[in-house]
Amino acid sequence: MSIGLNHFLIVSGILFSLGIFAIVTRKNAIMVLMGIEFILNASNINFIAFSKFGNFGVQGEVIALFVIVLAACEAAIALAIVLNIYKQFTTVNVDEINNLKN
Amino acid sequence: MYDVFFYIFAAITILSAFFVVTTKNVIYAVYSLLLTFFGIAGIYVLLGADFIAIVQIIVYVGGILILMIFGVMLTNKITSVEIKTQTLFVIPTAIGVGIFAGVLIARMITANWRTMPLNIDYSTTVYSIGASLLSDYSVLFILLGILLLITLIGAASIARKED
Hints:
The complex is a heterodimer of chains A (102) and B (163).
Chain A: H1 5-25, H2 29-53, H3 59-89
Helix pairs in contact in A: 1-2, 2-3
Chain B: H1 2-22, H2 26-46, H3 50-74, H4 90-110, H5 126-134, H6 138-159
């Protein structure tokens, strides 16, 4: 059986579900960030696969490039916030952070 | 040959991603994430997106992963090699995500996508991506530049030491 669009969609679907699983179950804020990266990568695989199989040229790749840039921005800002949270609460477990002002 | 490579990269991606979400050791999870990103880069190469694959490795492995290792190191009192994370709601979430994944994948497979057969010319896509960025998507390109500047200033100002 040759590789078609469905194979790529299955990979990205599994990756998306694993990302949601990581976001919901992990307590460490950095592990939650890893789940977000999984979801963004799953969307990227979908963009490029649809672009290639739908014969849209490089449009999907350009959008995937934008998603990668946004992911980098999001990781930088989120880790800065996590460092501040650690300074305030001396923990990064997201279920123990329950007040805005310490 | 193409199929074999696809299955190898898909297996690397899925298995290491599964290890990331199941392991308790944060450092192991970060290093497993490295393998996941490499597997995804391989999938991009199989789709003929060479530039995105390189950008994936440069940005994710070279940037985001290092940032995450810094984050792990800076937010734990390192007394031993083991840096653990706890979990909550594992069983209900596993059931819910399993149902979600089943429905999602079943829907995506049975959907009637109007696809064309994949014909990849194994020439570089850099020229057409560059032309596209500077013509069709030039406004988005400029906005992303401004966004990166804002992120640079914002991250530095959020994480700086208070006087």
